[in-house]
Write a structure and sequence with these properties.
By secondary structure, this protein is mainly beta. It has no helices and ten strands. The strands form two sheets. Strands 2-10-9-4-5-6 form a six-stranded mixed β-sheet, with no helix packed on it. Strands 1-3-8-7 form a four-stranded antiparallel β-sheet, with no helix packed on it. The protein starts with a strand and ends with a strand.
């Protein structure tokens, strides 16, 4: 059974940085693209960043380009999201998700980690 567990969320002042990590209990981790999503209160879940199976291709939401960086370590079955210059409007629950190569649907999902950006 695939399990994704996020960590690293918390409270940060505007302009600060946080690093989120996701540990995956997937034997074939390298067969999955990985992504980070977020959902703010009253809003729909949105994709923040994604990374291909080997880390060679990354993609970002326009709102985070230049500030966030996604990376993965296939030897440790982890994917991380470095978030810099955080803004209050980025307060949300951040989720890690996996996508099997060749498919379009994201899943499974982690349980999420809360990120709060406030002064």
């Amino acid at each position: 059974q695939v399990q994704l567990v996020e960590s690293g969320g918390g409270f940060m002042q505007p302009g600060g940085s946080l690093r989120l990590s996701c540990a995956a209990s997937i034997r074939t981790f390298g067969w999955f693209a990985m992504g980070w999503f977020r959902q703010a209160p009253g809003k729909e879940r949105e994709i923040v960043a994604s990374i291909s199976w080997n880390g060679g291709t990354t993609a970002y939401a326009d709102s985070v380009k230049g500030r966030f960086a996604i990376s993965r370590d296939n030897t440790r079955n982890t994917v991380s999201l470095q978030m810099n210059s955080l803004k209050p409007e980025e307060t949300a629950v951040y989720y890690c998700a996996a996508k099997v190569l060749g498919t379009t649907d994201w899943g499974p999902w982690g349980q999420g980690t809360q990120v709060t950006v406030s002064s």
